[in-house]
Design a protein that fits this description.
250 residues, alpha+beta, 6 strands
């Protein structure tokens, strides 16, 4: 019991600290719009990890020193596509997905077991019988019946649509020439901030002459679209409710 009391006190203290932090943050911006995040170096952001993937053997062909044409270029005089760390690349996001999954499971099982003990070295009516009630019948010593029934239904229906463009920055060049990009965009409307994040790996050959690329051409793509502000705060459950949802088993 003491262990459970200490655990409850620790949980309550943690909840109070989280609630105080959230309360102070909300109190500090009463009547004000949520602040935008300062522009910073993506590689210096907390949690940033350089990408390391298996690389193929270097089989690039050496260009001719007497040629005026640059291999992989889309223009004769200059290639304006992103190719170096710090270059900017425009990503076109057009997500229009819909999924409908239905599952149904039904299982039924019945079993019956009957075991009789007609004789036990002649002791069934003396020693064993003396310890059992008078209405005991050896012919039905054990009689078991069991039945189980399980029915499950599940339905998933999802529809998503996101259409926008975002400028990303080349943060790393892999040994095979592929580019690692990362972009962030924040838009504040009244007292709500909408935030779009994108990261992934692109091939230089997939970048168009207009220096754009589709989100479907990004490998290991990470796309996040959300927000923060008064509307988001109202849609979030209270701290106490979140704690109860996490620890209650039923």
């Amino acid at each position: 019991m003491n262990r459970f009391i200490r655990l409850a006190l620790v949980v309550a203290a943690a909840c109070s600290l989280g609630a105080c932090a959230g309360f102070q943050e909300r109190m500090s911006r009463i009547g004000e719009a949520p602040p935008l995040t300062a522009i910073q170096n993506p590689t210096a952001a907390p949690g940033y990890t350089p990408v390391s993937l298996p690389m193929p053997n270097d089989g690039a062909l050496a260009g001719s020193s007497a040629s005026l044409w640059q291999q992989g270029s889309r223009a004769f005089f200059k290639d304006n596509r992103a190719a170096r760390v710090g270059d900017i690349l425009t990503v076109a996001i057009n997500i229009d997905e819909e999924a409908d999954v239905q599952n149904q499971t039904e299982r039924t099982r019945d079993s019956k077991e009957n075991l009789g003990l007609g004789g036990l070295f002649g002791l069934e009516s003396t020693v064993v019988g003396a310890a059992l009630p008078a209405e005991y019948s050896p012919s039905g010593a054990v009689d078991l019946n069991s039945g189980t029934s399980s029915t499950g239904n599940g339905t998933i229906k999802r529809s998503e649509a996101v259409k926008m463009t975002i400028a990303a920055v080349v943060t790393q060049i892999l040994p095979n020439g592929n580019l690692v990009i990362q972009g962030r965009q924040e838009v504040r409307v009244n007292h709500e901030v909408r935030e779009l994040l994108i990261a992934g790996i692109v091939r230089p050959s997939d970048i168009t002459a207009a220096n754009t690329i589709k989100h479907t051409q990004i490998a290991e793509a990470r796309i996040s679209y959300g927000g923060r502000g008064q509307i988001t705060d109202m849609q979030q459950p209270r701290y106490g409710q979140q704690v109860l949802d996490a620890i209650l088993p039923f």
